[in-house]
């Protein structure tokens, strides 16, 4: 059994450094593979060559990819973030464009019913449709 006296403080520190580097290495691998597979500017053959290079010679493959494609990786990240932000903005605008949502639709239908423009059956259909979409 391992006692605390058999494992000095510097060994604990060194183990933490090794663990951090191990996690950072796998994070780099994930980033490289993610970037390889989300690229649209290269074909399947080039992607396969990059993957084989990274698998056969991991350290060299990852570092060469990072050196060769760092600018492209950053541009793709920025583009992905901008696209995501535009989609979010469009969603917020679409939700904000319908003030009140189902409640407003039912209220308008009730006003039409009271004015005699629609029948009670049409009112119930509008109400059911509004509640189903909410």
Provide an overview of this structure.
With 134 residues, the chain is mostly helical. It folds into 2 domains: 4-97; 99-134, no CATH class. It is 83% helix and 0% strand. Helix 1 (9-38) runs antiparallel to helix 2 and helix 4 packs antiparallel against helix 5. The radius of gyration is 29 Å and the shape is elongated.
Identify the notable features of this structure and list them briefly.
single chain; 134 residues; mainly alpha; 2 domains; elongated
What does the secondary structure layout of this molecule look like, with pairings?
Elements lengths: L8 H30 L5 H13 L1 H40 L4 H14 L4 H14 L1
Helix pairs in contact: 1-2, 1-3, 2-3, 4-5
Shape verdict: elongated
* Biggest sheet architecture: none
The unreliable regions are none
**Terminal residue distance:** 62 Å
Q: Into which percentage range does the β-strand content fall?
A: under 5%
Indicate the structural class.
mainly alpha
Radius of gyration: 29 Å
Strand/helix succession: HHHHH
Counting DSSP E segments of at least 2 residues, the number of strands comes to 0
């Amino acid at each position: 059994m391992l006692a605390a006296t058999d494992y000095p403080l510097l060994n604990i520190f060194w183990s933490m450094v090794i663990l951090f580097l191990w996690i950072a290495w796998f994070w780099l691998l994930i980033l490289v593979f993610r970037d390889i597979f989300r690229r649209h500017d290269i074909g399947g053959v080039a992607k396969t060559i990059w993957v084989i290079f990274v698998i056969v010679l991991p350290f060299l493959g990852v570092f060469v990819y990072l050196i060769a494609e760092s600018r492209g990786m950053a541009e793709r990240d920025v583009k992905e973030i901008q696209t995501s932000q535009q989609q979010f903005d469009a969603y917020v605008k679409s939700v904000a464009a319908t003030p009140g949502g189902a409640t407003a639709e039912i209220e308008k239908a009730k006003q039409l019913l009271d004015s005699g423009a629609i029948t009670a059956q049409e009112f119930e259909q509008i109400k059911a449709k509004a509640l189903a979409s909410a």
